Amino acid sequence: MGCKVAIKWSKKITTMQVEQLIRAEKDIQKALMIFDSATAEYSNGFRHDQKTFGLMISRLVSANQFRPAEEILHRMHEEKCDISEDLFLKICRAYGRVHKPLDAIRIFQKMNELKCEITEKAYITVFAILVAENQLKMALRFYRYMRSLGIQASVVSLNVLMKALCMNNGTIDAALKIFHEMPSRGCPPDSYTYGTLISGLCKFGRISEANELFKEMGTKGCLPSVVTYTSLMHGLCQSNKLDEALEMMKEMAGKGVKPNVFTYSCLMDGLCKNGCSSQAMALLDTMSSSSLSPNMITYCTLIGGLCKEGKLLEAVDLFDRMKLQGLKPDAGLYWKIIGGFCDKSKFHEAANFLDEMILGGVSPNRLTWNLHVRSHNTVVQGLCAEGDPKRAFHLYLSMRTRGISIEPKTYNKLIQCLCNTRDLLKACRIVDEMVVDGCFPDEESWKDTFLGLWDGREAVGSAELLKLLDGKS
Is the sign of the CA dihedral 37, 39, 45, 49 positive or negative? Predict the structure, then answer.
């Protein structure tokens, strides 16, 4: 528990006083100290009750302080203070939020141990946590366990079950079957049911079926949410049905459903992939006028689309705007900009963004490492083609220092470029490092280096190269 601190309490301390102080304190450790200080007043007749215990546990799990929260839970039991089901479920949901579904199940299992009655609500909550965390096999076992206990199917539990089945292309038909059986079970589908199925069908490219369900919603009095609209619009964009997706955006406005950032972003993605970045940028203006701030996905989509169409100035302006908004670009976004400049043979500008990325401490992850390697090599080769061996060599040294693989073509281009500018010592150094790395220069690079040294009367250097050549053969 937290450290005890001296607080001057009134002679008759009340739970309301303790509650108010804990709520007012923003620092979680200080709030815990207030709680412990009130505990010290037990000798004066004060006792924590459901309100103070529950508030402290809520504060702790909100701050991901699970161990002290569980300690207080056990104290409640020891002090014979009733623990509500909602309090247990609050801890379960908190564990789900930090992707610890097994801990959520552990807390659920404590409910019997700590004499808390378990209702259908608790079972469905844990079932939903398992589905949300993609623990599908465990979730389906848990659902069968629920049914074996005699817990009847309800709209809520069937919605969670269908969400699980919609995650896999092989089980989505089972979700549709349950959907069609719901009315006969006394569980009429609601808006969430339709939304779940539409999202699942769109995910697996079954847009026509999703469209039919969307139309059926209106006839059943179920109103589509912004999430349902966004799912269907995303599916339409993925199927190159941009006109239908844009019409759906107008329909949303007509029905008073406000699009969110994800709605705009999915439309922008569809437009950019079809070479319509200007329309996507117009959507960005509409979005901003609606007081919605673009997120990283929005910026990545637009910058990628602009670079793909060669609109590099607009892409860089948007990149700078993103940084002014306080968003930090990742390696993937830098590669879009760098790749755009490389495609236009603007290798100095590409190198500037590489430098900015390195100085900013932006590192690639496992998924973007190959792109990281390829981009560096492309920029070095491009700088050599533009006749800037000095910058190419500096980038080459940086690559070696950071463990980035150097392609044979990069070695050869750099050697030839250095030989053309008579920087033979650096050319020889690269030949040495190339051979040490288990790679050999091509015939042209050998020739350029050897003749350069010979013309410069560097007989010793020429002899060393001949030895390397003999070793190669």
Answer: positive
Predicted TM-score (pTM) of the model is 0.78
Cα–Cα distance, 220 to 216 (Å, whole number): 6
Tell me the pLDDT band of 64, cut-offs 50, 70 and 90: very high
User: pLDDT tens digit string along 96-106?
Assistant: 999 999 999 99
End-to-end CA distance of the chain: 73
Distance CA 446, CA 466 (A): 9
Q: Which position has the token pair 């050599």?
A: 384
Region for residue 80 given its phi and psi (left: phi exceeds 0; alpha: psi -120 to 50; beta: otherwise)? left
Q: How many CB atoms lie within 10 A of CB 436?
A: 8
CA angle 334–350–300, rounded 5-degree value: 25
d(CA 17, CA 6): 15
Token pair listed for 471: 């070793």
The Cα–Cα gap between 415 and 428 comes to 8
- CA-to-CA distance for 11 and 13, rounded, in angstroms? 6
Mean pLDDT for 177-195 is 94
Question: Where on the phi/psi map is residue 259: left (φ > 0), alpha (ψ -120 to 50), or beta?
Answer: beta
Task: Write the CA distances from 48 to 23, 90, 111, 419, integer angstroms.
Answer: 15, 19, 20, 82
Amino acid found at 225: S
The CA distance from 18 to 311, in Å, is: 60
Integer angstrom CA distances of residue 290 from 180, 327, 369: 39, 20, 38
Alpha-carbon dihedral sign for residues 92, 96, 98, 104:
positive
Q: Which residues contact 433 (CB under 8 A, 6 or more apart)?
A: 400
d(CA 260, CA 375): 34
Q: What is the pLDDT of residues 359-392, one digit of tens each?
A: 888 888 888 888 889 989 999 999 999 999 899 9
Convert the pLDDT of each residue in 15-63 to its tens digit.
898 999 999 999 999 999 999 998 888 888 889 999 999 999 999 999 9
Supply φ then ψ for residue 378, to 5 degrees.
Answer: -65, -40
The answer to whether residues 419 and 430 touch, using CB atoms and an 8 Å cutoff, is no
Only one residue has tokens 């406000």, namely 258
Within 13 Å and on the Cβ side, how many CA atoms surround 323? 12
